[in-house]
Predict the structure.
Amino acid sequence: EQTVADLQALYGVTATMLLCDAHPGYATSRWAARSSLPVARIFHHQAHAAAACTNTAGRGDWLVFTWDGVGYGEDGTLWGGEALRGRPGAWQRFASLRPFHLPGCERAGREPWRSAAALCWETGHSWAGLPQDAGLARHAWERRLNTPQTTAAGRLFDAAAALTGLCSVASFEGQGPMLLEAGCGQAEVDPVRLPLLPAATGLWVSDWEPLLPLLLDESLPVMLRAACFHASLAHALLAQALQARAQHGIERIGLCGGVFQNRVLTESACRLLTAAGFDVALPEHVPVNDAGISYGQVIEFGSRPQN
């Protein structure tokens, strides 16, 4: 609140309305609701998608991959592995990653073993790396207590970091994925094909389950498993883009969200997309992670037809 007051005083402006995230539990959303100003709520991944479209010249829709930790989705679940089709002010969810239930909700960001356990419990795989006190988490997961559904790519990276033995408990959110990225080294690998299937809603969904045998195989070097995980997700992203081209003639691809701070994944995805003939946009002047959300909120709001 002090920063809001200071910045308005510094620049000689007075706010006449507020934009905030659609998540009702965020401190900023609650603060906005308590204010006396008009409030517009912007969904997290719509803001990410809008921030990616810094060059909106030309015709045709975008397909923007908004991969991050978790963000409040339009259906009330936690998104984070989405591909949104359209343009700022008019987005439609086109594709996603297979959802799973996250035990412990926000605790999973600091305890990657929870994401790993969720993937194994969802698919019936055994994992010897579970902590001794995981029984309570399993009990809650089975009864869907504090285990929201998520599609978050960031939590998949957490799971992979734990399953490869690189990071089960983190001192900060993102530590597991950072170690997984560093673990790739210079390994050359063939990707695991992740099925891309249509859901009953028409949404296209990439299934991460074929990655689990690889990640759980302790006979393989960590470097190989980490590199294969990155390559497989990059190819899954390409498959979704090709599906969007086949259905809707999409030629412009945007990448935005904290997961695309990962250089291995982002360079691989850009290389594959460019080779397939797509025009790829990655934010350069605006942070690709949540530091660029406020900018994306402004672009998204200002692009809506009623504005």
Notes: Residues 45 and 66 are 6 Å apart (CA to CA). The longest strand covers residues 62-72. The mean pLDDT is 95. The radius of gyration is 20 Å.
